[in-house]
Structure formats: structure tokens, C-alpha cells
Design brief:
single chain, 13 strands, 431 residues, 7-stranded parallel β-sheet, 17 helices
Amino acid sequence: MTILVISPDYASHLLPLATLATAWQARGERVVVASGPATAELVAGFGFERSDLRLGRGSNPGVIAAEDQPRDEGDSLRGFFEATRRGAVPTLEFQAAERLVDLMWDPAVSARNTLRIVERVSPDRILVDHLAFSARLGLDSDGIPYGDVVLGHPTTLPVGDEVYGSPPVWPSAFRAEPRELAELRRLCERVTSGFTAEWNRVGRELHAGFRTTRDAFAEHGALVLYNYPDELVDHERRPLLPPHRFLGSTLRAEPVDPAIEAWILGAGRFAYVSFGSFLSVRGDVLRRVVDAAKSLGVRLALASGATDPAQLGDLPPDWLVRRYLPQVRLLSDATAVVTHGGNNSVTEAVGSGVPLVILPFSTDQFAGAAAVERSGFGVVLDPNAASVHELAVSLAAVMTLDGEARTRLDAVAARQAARPGPELAFDALSA
């Protein structure tokens, strides 16, 4: 059997998709990954075959910086980072305006290239990142079935009256004006209309009998695989969901680093801090997190990413500070995590039984943070407004999480350990 994995050229997307494919690899099956050149080393690290496929103008091998991107993408990133400083709604408005170029880049060419790879590889199963719209457009136009992997919060695939890009739920720390939210929704509706028109136009170009749609963002494969814990799902959305499985998380195996193993052994209780590939550029927020941890005497394992550690003040010598850290490994021993609320961070923390302090900046991070807040598995703060004192209080609270919330979080982690996400994906696609 051959399984084809289709991913944008971003480490944060490829890592969970590749981890799902290890279920096939463990059974001796052939795995081919179609992605761009920036993630080629990651593909090789998994021991998979690779086929070159560009699905966007940008890329990210692990940590991203605007100056490392093509000019247009670099300008877009700088605009995005500046928007995050103005607040949640300005950030979502900026992202909505960028939607065509960041989600459906050169769609006809990308769709045809996807179909060429399918013809050449002749896979028995296909796993596709849900946000790889151009690739899915090609598969849909040719009637090729695939497992549609939603790597973000489930609202990344809108249902009912939801509009892509306009969060249906917000954490309590965010209090946008009703007028602002209404304007954001109207903008997202206009973007949806334009995006859908392009989807339908290219679909008809690819195949005369292409089935057009009223909302391309709501389109999906025959089976949707949510990389998300079932226990965090909003019960009101469940009846509206397409045929699906919840995978929990994709806790990948990471290479052993003796220096990190030694640090963990001697660290005692520690918190893990990461703002992911993109948002680690917000060194001002990281600095407040650092100051909060210092005020509590809490040791940190800190992934500084795009921020120079020199910008974070005097760091205690017994902290673990690197540009990039093995997140899954550290979460297996961490007492708490401070994060921007990206889906990998949230699902991997919950799957490891680690409570969270979430500082959401963009996209589906607000809905994901609201779900964690609702579950009692963490605390949510506004990254632009939270003081050092508020951060310290929140970090202390999650590091001492107990009672019913602690029991439920441990139970979620135990269930995922018994039935890991890759096995659930394998069973779902095999069926």
C-alpha cells in the first residue's frame, strides 16, 4: 500500500501530518510526502519519500522570519506582525484581506501539479492538509477521495452560519465592541464570496462537470480528520459536523538530545514557553512572560524562535533557552506551558496532560483558547494587555492545577496514550 501526504511547505503543518503517516510506515507501507523544499529535511528525517509540490509563496522550516521569505511574503509577514500589536480584530482583518494569496496561491497550476503527483505515485490512500485548498481543489475536480486533515481548531472548517475568519467564540479576556465584530464578519463574508468565486472558476477550468459551491471554505473531503481532542469540542457544533473522527493529538517521536535530557533530569518542576514559528517575533510579550517566571522563581524551557534571547533581559543560568526546542519531549515532563495557542501547542499540551496559559494573537487561536478556558485546562490572557503580575498569577494557578479539572486533563492524556492519533487515522482511512 502507498499513502500520499500533501502538505504546505510549513513545518507546523508537515509535522503532525507526517506523524499521522507513521502509522502506515510502522506497518511497512510506502509513504510519499508532497511538499515544498523548505521542509525536505523534515521529510527525510521521518524516512519518507518526497515529491516536490509548492502550494504557497511562503515557507517555514521551523522558525520563520520576514527577511527569509520572498519579497511579497516578507511584506505580508511584517504587516501581520504589526497588526498583532494593534489587537485581535485588526489582526483578523489583516488576515482576511490576505486570504486569497495565503490559502489559494496559483490554484490552477497547484491543482494540476497535485494531480500529476497522484498519477505518478498512484497512492491507495491520501492525507491532505485541509488548508491546502489548491491541492484539494485538484483532487475534488477529479473525484479523488482523500482524508481531509483539519490541523486547526474545528472552526477552521465552518459549519452552520459560521463565516471563515470570524471567530464564533471568544475567550473572556477579549472584549471587542459589537460594531467591530460586525464589521469583521462583513469583511469575512466579502472575502468568502471572492474566495468561492475563484474556487468555482478554477474548478470549472479543471473539469467542465465540476460541482460549484456557495462557500469554498466549508468544502471538505468525504472524511474529515480533526487533529483535536474530542473532550474540547463544543457540543452545540457536533450535530453540524460532516463525517469525521477526532484524533486527539499527534505526539511525534523526537530525536534524543543528551543535553536536554540532562537538563530535564535536574530541572525539577518547570514551565515550557513557546510562541511557535511565527509569533515568537513578539519579544515584548515573551519578555513579560520571562519576568513573570523570574518573579515566581519558576524555571523555564524557553523556545525563543525569532526573538534574540538578549532582548529578554538577564536569564537565569539554570534555564534552558534555545531558538528551537523539542516541544513534545519537553511537554512530557513540563508542569505548565505558556503558548500563543497554536493548534499543535494546544493539542500536544492537552495530550501530555499539561495545563496552559494561552496568549492568543490570530486566526483560530481565539476559538482554541476559549475551548481550553471552558474546559478548565488553562487560563487565557490578552497578550497585548496582560501585565507581568497577571502573567505570574496565571502561571502559578496552572502550575498548581488540581481537583476535577486536573482529573479530567489526566484522563484525556491517558485516553490519547492508549489510542494515539496516528492509529485512529489509520483505522478511519482503512475503513
